[in-house]
Design goal:
About 30% of the residues lie in helices and about 20% in strands. The chain is of the alpha/beta class. The chain binds 8-iodo-guanine. The site of 8-iodo-guanine has 16 residues, from strand 5, strand 8 and strand 9.
């Protein structure tokens, strides 16, 4: 049991656990430092494959602070990948801990803190989500411009008033749009889940200024800012949010949209990552 299991333990320091995690990653990958981290959300699993050569693959539970698999037989992995021939190294998190798993906020942001402790300067947070704009067909990638955190919690502990201006770096969004000029931007609204929204909640999200609804990312982005990481957020609209289309939501639809979008978002992620580490 690591200290992350007990958020109420006043002696536990999640940043210490992140440093131990980074030490294990350095040992197992042979890289004392990584440059960029990517969190692969729903629909993005295959998108890391075009990045470059995988140097090492570590079962996440081997690394301090990462939980045992939630589903039997499904172990998340942490991969160290060469970014093309740039000489840069990327850390790929093949899964994330969601707030709705009830393991606490420290767990949710542990990958982000580990990335920072491993030397990363940038983190790319990807997710699958519902879209409010009917023009976004399932399979459309959208840049996150800003977020609304409806989880009523924060990864920041204590009187630590972290500024969130330009949290989703306009510099990194510009780089992404150089790669694909057709990319739209939107405001991501995080609900706690794990149920999808009611149509009324989706209308509320729209009134509030939201464009995308999901169950992740905002707490990770906040922790990333606290850790000094520059953040790029990319959502894959895998379904229209509840009530936007006549059809009910289905998890199968979500998975199929991800598979159909794989070639486009894989190429996008690889080229954006290459440009980030070379500029
Ligand atoms: I994939 O429509 C995916 N994740 N909250 N709403 C929320 N999360 C999602 C959705 C959605 N689709």
């Amino acid at each position: 049991m690591t200290s992350l299991d007990d958020p109420d333990d006043p002696t536990a320091d999640p940043f210490d656990v992140a440093r131990s995690a980074a030490d294990v990653i350095a040992q197992r990958t042979g890289a004392d430092k990584h440059d960029i981290a990517l969190v692969l959300g729903s629909g993005w699993a295959g998108a890391g494959d075009l990045l470059g050569r995988t140097v090492a693959e570590i079962p996440a539970p081997d690394v301090p602070g990462f939980p045992p698999p939630a589903v039997a037989g499904h172990v998340g992995t942490i991969r160290s990948v060469e970014v093309g021939d740039t000489g840069a190294r990327a850390l790929l998190f093949g899964s994330r801990t969601h707030l709705y798993e009830g393991k606490g906020v420290r767990r949710v942001v542990h990958g982000v803190r580990t990335a920072a402790a491993a030397g990363c300067r940038t983190i790319v947070l990807t997710n699958g989500c519902g879209g409010l704009n009917p023009a976004w067909a399932p399979g459309t990638p959208v840049l996150i411009r800003d977020h609304i955190n409806l989880t009523a919690t924060s990864p920041i502990e204590g009187a630590n008033f972290v500024d969130l201006t330009d949290l989703y770096s306009s510099r990194l969004r510009s780089i992404a749009k150089e790669v694909d000029a057709d990319l739209d931007e939107g405001v991501y609204v995080q609900f706690r889940g794990p149920h999808y929204e009611t149509p009324a909640e989706v209308r509320m999200a729209k009134v509030l200024g939201g464009d995308l609804v999901g169950m992740s990312t905002t707490l990770e982005a906040i922790a990333a800012r606290q850790a000094g990481l520059e953040v790029l957020g990319i959502s894959l609209v895998t379904n229209l949010a509840a009530g936007i289309s006549e059809n009910p939501l289905s998890h199968t639809e979500v998975i199929e949209a991800g598979q159909a979008a794989a070639p486009r978002i894989g190429a996008l992620l690889a080229e954006v990552t290459r440009r980030i580490v070379t500029t």
